[in-house]
Structure formats: structure tokens, C-alpha cells
Amino acid sequence: MILVNTNFISGKEIDTLGVVKGSTIQSKHLGKDFMSGLKTIVGGEIKAYTDMMNEARAIATKRMVEEAEALGADGVINIRYTTSAIMQGAAEVMVYGTAVKIK
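Predicted structure:
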């Protein structure tokens, strides 16, 4: 599966199949959330949240790819990610793009 954030696949002729998306809502457990709150006092990267968001992007991307594969796609173009805070310590990650078939 070819995944790109451009509206084309270099050197390939494509047919558009439709919009595909994947999403997930992730949260960290209370202990990590509490420790992350303490980190805001001294500053710096909050690794627990970095890890959480990386995991969420991977899950959302996998779900988008599965939806594209169900359409018979060879790739997804114009990929975009969005993130929304759902509640304290929880975030939704959504990824979407256009499923395409290479001619």
C-alpha cells in the first residue's frame, strides 16, 4: 500500500476510488496522567503523551489502510491527520485520504 500526502503518486496514473478514514481515541491511565501533570511544572517533553499520540496515529493509519484495502486500493493519496481533545488525558486521532487504484 502506497501512502502519500501529495495528490498524486509520482510516475503513476491513478483512478480515484473514494475517501477513506481511520480513527481512534486514546487515553493514559491515571498514574501516568498524574505524573505528566507534574511534568508541566518543570517543563519538557511529556513522553507518556508522545507515546500515546504515536500509538494513536499508528492505529488510525492501520484502520484507514484496512478501509482502502476493502475498496481494492493500491494506495492512499492526500493523507491528512487531525487531533481533537475529547477530555483531559484523552485524544482522538483521525486520518483521512483518497483511496486510489494504480492503472
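Summary: The chain has a mean pLDDT of 88.
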